[in-house]
Amino acid sequence: MIFKIGRSKSPWLFHLNTGSCNGCDIEIIALFASRYDVERLGCKLVGSPKHADICLVTGPVTARSKEPLLRIYDMLPNPKVVVCVGTCSISSGVFTDGYSIVGPAHKLIPVTAYVGGCSAHPKNIFLGLQKAIEVFKEGR
């Protein structure tokens, strides 16, 4: 019971780049800077998906990143909450029909929330993260 309460108040985030240009990755890091400071909500970036509550996915899924994406999704503890950040992770963006693009993340794994934009603005990522936290607290 205490573990469940603690997890819901401070969701830990795992960031996965599946082939992006790093624009959205930089904006995710900006979330942790003083302007947006998501750590005040208890959010913390972790290095292992096994410790994460929410997974942030950036970029289109490439042929090389497909298997790691599926493995990392399996490693996430339940409830599995995934947020796609940026146009590329939602629709493959300008990389659509590229020779090494398998597709957007939602074709391979269930996605909880989407944050559009190229690159996604930290304020929008923050809003998407709030939705993901709500879903995580409900345990869906």
From TrEMBL:
GO terms for molecular function: 4 iron, 4 sulfur cluster binding; metal ion binding. Residues 21-131 form the NADH:ubiquinone oxidoreductase-like 20kDa subunit domain. Its cofactor is [4Fe-4S] cluster. This is Ni,Fe-hydrogenase III small subunit. The keyword Metal-binding applies. InterPro entries: Complex_I_20kDa-like, NADH_UbQ_OxRdtase-like_20kDa. Keywords: 4Fe-4S, Iron, Iron-sulfur, Metal-binding. It holds the Pfam family Oxidored_q6. It comes from the Bacteria. Belongs to the complex I 20 kDa subunit family.
